[in-house]
Amino acid sequence: MIDNKKVLFSGMQATGNLTLGNYLGALKNWVNLSDEYECFYSVVDMHSITIRQDPATLRKRARALLTLYIAAGLDPEKNCIYYQSHVSGHAELAWILNCFTYMGELNRMTQFKDKAAKHADNINAGLFTYPVLMAADILLYQADVVPVGIDQMQHLEITRDIAQRFNGLYGDVFTIPEAYIGKVGAKIMSLQDPSKKMSKSDENPNASIYLMDDPDTIRRKCKRAVTDSLGEFRYSEEQPGLHNLIDIFCACTNRTPDDVVKEFADGGYGQFKEAVGEAVVAVLDPLQKRVAELEKDKPYIDGVIKNNAEKANYYAQKTLRKVQKKVGFPEKIR
Ligand code: TYM
Q1: Which of 173, 185, 269, 332 could be joined to 24 by an S-S link, Cβ 3.0–4.6 Å?
Q2: In testing the pocket of ligand 1, which one of 152, 208, 250 has its CB within 8 Å of the most ligand atoms?
Q3: Among 9, 13, 19, 22, which is best to mutate for testing ligand 1, by the most ligand atoms less than 8 A from CB?
Q4: Which active-site residues does the annotation give?
C-alpha cells in the first residue's frame, strides 16, 4: 500500500514495433486502472537485451515507448513512468531472487522455449532467467496487481511461487501479486494465422497491426485478415479469424460480442472487416498524433524521466533494504 492505495506494476519491452495486441491487451487496461491504484509503469529495457539489440535503436525505441505511455493517457504526475535500467534495485533484487528460483521451474517456461528456438544462436543466461528479473520488477514495488495479456500468465505464476517461497523462509516480506487480465483483448491473434498471437516479431507484416501504422495500412491489413469459408456471422471458437476480429472490434469500441453479432449478422465478412479497420483507425490515429506532439517537447519528457526514476528508486530501495537484511547482507556504514 502506498498512501492507502493498492500498488499496480506493469511493463513493456521496447523491442520491435509495438502491436495492437500490446495496446489492447495491456496499455488500454493500464489507463483504465490508473486512478484506482498507485501505479508503476516501466519501460523494461533490461529485458530487451536478452535478444541482441542495436544500441541506438534500443535507446530510440525506449524513449518512444515511454512517450507512448503518456500519449495513451497515463499522467506522469500520478503514475510512475520510468526506465527499468534507471533503477538499479531491479538488477539487485533479481540476483537475490535467482538464488531462490530453481532451474526446473525456469525450464518449464514456454516463452523461454519459444525464444530459444527462435534465437538458437544466442541462448544466453539472461534469456533463461528473464522471468526472475520480471519477478523482481513486480516484487520490488510490493505490487498487488499486474495487468498483462494472457501470454504473461506463466511468468506471473512463477513470480507468485518465488514470493511465497521467500516469505515462507523469512516472514511476510513480499506482497503476493495477482494478475489482471482484461475481459476483451487479452489475447489478440495474428491476422494471417489466428492460431498464433499477434506478435512484434512476426515475419509477415500483414499479420500484425503496428501502433504506428498509417490509416490506409490499417484498413488494408483488416481487409486482408484471414477468416473462413463458413459465411456465418458468429462469435465462436470454431471461427478463430472472425472471433479475433470481433475481439479487436469490441476492445476498440467498448462493445460486447453479442451486440456486435446482432448488428453485423446480415452483412458479409467484408463489411465487418471494413468496420474493424475504421474502429482501429479511430483508436490509433489520435494516439499517433499525441505521440508526435509529445515528442516535440524534449524538456518535458526529460523531466518525466528524471523525476519518475527518483520516485521509483525511493520505493525500490525500501524493499531492497528489507530483503538484503533478511538474507544476511551486512548493513552499510553511513
Ligand atoms: P511484452 O513487451 O511482450 O508485451 C507487453 C504487454 O502486451 C501484452 N501482449 C498482448 N496482449 C494481448 N494480445 C497480444 N497479442 C499481446 N502481445 C503482447 C503482454 O501480455 C504484456 O502485458 N515480459 C513482459 C514485460 C515485463 C513485465 C514485467 C510485464 C517485464 N517485467 C513485469 C508485467 C510485469 C513482456 O515481454 O511483455
Answers
A1: 185
A2: 152
A3: 22
A4: 115, 197, 200
Contact 28, 182 (CB under 8 A): yes
pLDDT tens digits, 184-225: 888 999 999 999 999 988 899 999 999 999 999 999 999 999
Ligand 1 pocket, residue 105 CB under 6 Å:
no
Mention every residue, 6+ apart, whose C-beta is less than 8 A from residue 296.
none
Protein residue closest via CA to atom 27 of ligand 1: 11
Question: What is the CA(147)–ligand 1 centre distance, in A?
Answer: 9
Q: Under 8 Å CB-to-CB from 70, ≥6 apart: which residues?
A: 76, 81, 294, 301, 304
Angle separating helix axes 110-118 and 153-170, nearest 10 degrees: 130
Distances in whole angstroms, Cα of residue 218 to Cα of each of 255, 271, 281, 296 = 20, 15, 7, 25
Q: What pLDDT was estimated at residue 16?
A: 76
Ligand 1: atom nearest CA of 200 is 17
Angstrom distance (rounded) from CA 247 to CA 243: 6
Q: Is the CB of 25 under 6 A from ligand 1?
A: yes
Q: Is the beta carbon of 198 within 6 A of some atom in ligand 1? A: yes
Tell me the pLDDT band of 169, cut-offs 50, 70 and 90: very high
pLDDT tens by residue, 15-35: 878 999 999 989 999 999 999
CA–centroid distance for 21 within its chain: 9
pTM for the model stands at: 0.94
CB 49 within 8 A of CB 18: no
